[in-house]
Amino acid sequence: MRMSKLWVLAPLLVLGLSAQGADFQRSAIPGWRLALQAWTFNSKTVVEVIDLAKQLGIQYIECFPGQKVSAENQTGFGPGMSEDAAKIVRAKLVETGCHVIAFGVTGIPGDEKGIRDMFAWAQSWGIGTINTEIGKGQFELVDRLAEEYGIKVGLHNHPKPSHYWDPAFVASELAGMNFVGACADTGHWPRSGVVPIDGIKALKGKIVSLHFKDLNDAKEDAPWGTGKGDAKGVLAELKNQGFQGTFSIEYENWAAGQQEAVRQCVEWWFKTVAELAGK
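User: That's the sequence. What structure does it adopt?
Assistant: Structure tokens below.
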């Protein structure tokens, strides 16, 4: 097997950490990380989101493809971005101590060279997880190359009629895969009639990351722990399963007070994880 030039960094990359900078965010449960899905503030630039994440006490970022890098540089974040644009983002990461650890939801090229180029790009950022909705025909090649590059790939579920809305179907599709797993969106499941904790149980051993959410009666995002999704019960089930990975805040209720709602999610997550760690 031809090994990536950066394979020596794979243990760090699988954990979603870059080789530079120390962590300022520690979870009470080892292997659990809280990230901000940049889509939450998709009207802002990448550097603005990084600053905002730091203000909210979040060290880790899940970037989405095409987000403008800065007010001065309108390049979209993602594979093929210019070196000038990359330098702007890297400088902001160094300044804040934040890390980009995940990328998605994105497509993945269908050919080996394209996949290698994308994975090498992700590896250069310390991105340990790529979230996508690729078809099953790509699984075998993507899984093999993901192992080589030390990257996890998560199949994300949008609501019906998305191909992956049903967690039981996703689990069956993932049979035999080692590095391709599920990116469980616990907010989209109720919109398809799936109870979040049931989805987590159906995907036991297959989950590589989460777009974690809690919904109100109107099936809109609510601060975690205040909705109808049994958010604490979901965390407890993930702990029982031995899950290790990233919980990305993707808060899509864009009403006034969104930033404060995200802050409440952060506070609730650290408090609840600490409670679960003590049991």
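The CA atoms of residues 155 and 182 lie 5 Å apart.
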